[in-house]
Structure formats: structure tokens, C-alpha cells
Design goal:
Layout (H helix, E strand, L loop, with lengths): L4 H5 L3 H11 L17 E5 L4 E5 L6 E3 L6 E4 L12 H12 L18 H7 L1 H10 L1 H20 L1
Antiparallel strand pairs: 1-2, 1-4, 3-4
Bound molecules: zinc ion.
The site of zinc ion has 7 residues, from loops.
Protein name: Zinc ribbon domain-containing protein
């Protein structure tokens, strides 16, 4: 549930804190999805270059059913590239590493890896605010990328 800032300011510190804690239970990629419905959300595995859908409302990272490594929850706006399309998967990974989980209201997402840097700079404020608000979950996502890196250096 999205509560506007003006409304939050009127709350007691205690109530605001409770609200913030409750909000942390929702993975960041699902934060802006309509509430009250159970949607399937895509989770992307950058090791397998596959995505699978889960109804999870609680985790930002889930084990990939294919390789057991970490897969990262993205919004329903995410459309997985073909497994063979290495360049598109590299683009998606760069975006997610920069903290962009395919939220709809950032407009058009980059079409190529080359455009990711400019897009990330343009929307840096937004990404920083999301990370600050859902720090624990973003730390989980960052730990997932550490694990992905470890798995790559082994194979
Ligand atoms: Zn996998």
C-alpha cells in the first residue's frame, strides 16, 4: 500500500515506524504492484539466463529452480530475453545491479547495454531512495550478485 508523504508526516513516529517495518515485508520489485491480488512475479536467474514466476510476496531473492543459485524478483513489466541473447541478458543484469527492478513509472527502459549507464545516471535519485527505503532487501540482492560472481569464478 502506497501512503503519500503528506499523510506520513501526520502520523506519530511510532505508527510511521510500524508502517515502514510492514512495508519492508514486501519485496521492492513488488512494492508498486496492485495490492489485494496475488500476482505471479518473475524472478530472473543471471546464471541460467532464465526467469520463472512465483507468487512470493515476501522475498526479494529466491533460489533458482534450475541451478539452485540466487534469482532476483523483478516487476511484472520485466520481459525475459531469449536464453541465447547474451547481450540482452547483460543489459538486464546491469540494470538490476544498478538497482532498477523494472518499475513501470521510470518510462522506457534502455534497449541496449550501452544505454544503461545514461539511464542509471538519469534515474540515480530514484534508485537511491528505493535502496534507502528497502535497505535490507537491497542488501540481499547485492549479496545475491556476490554469490553469482562466486559461482562464475568457479565455473
Ligand atoms: Zn539458475
Amino acid at each position: 500500500m502506497q501512503i503519500p508523504t503528506w499523510q506520513r508526516r501526520k502520523m506519530s513516529a511510532e505508527k510511521r515506524k510500524a508502517l515502514e517495518l510492514a512495508e519492508q515485508q514486501v519485496p521492492p520489485a513488488q512494492k508498486f504492484a496492485s495490492q489485494g491480488y496475488t500476482y505471479l512475479h518473475p524472478f530472473a536467474c543471471f546464471s541460467c539466463r532464465k526467469s520463472f514466476k512465483r507468487a512470493s510476496q515476501t522475498r526479494a531473492v529466491l533460489p533458482c529452480p534450475n541451478c539452485g543459485g540466487p534469482s532476483i524478483g523483478l516487476t511484472r513489466k520485466f520481459k525475459p530475453p531469449k536464453q541465447s541473447d547474451l547481450r540482452q541478458w547483460a543489459k538486464v543484469e546491469a540494470l538490476v545491479r544498478n538497482g532498477f527492478l523494472f518499475w513501470g513509472h521510470l518510462g522506457t527502459y534502455p534497449e541496449t547495454l550501452r544505454e544503461v549507464e545514461a539511464f542509471s545516471i538519469r534515474n540515480a535519485g530514484f534508485a537511491i531512495r528505493q535502496r534507502h527505503r528497502d535497505l535490507a532487501q537491497f542488501l540481499e540482492i547485492e549479496a545475491a550478485f556476490d554469490e553469482i560472481g562466486r559461482r562464475r569464478s568457479v565455473t
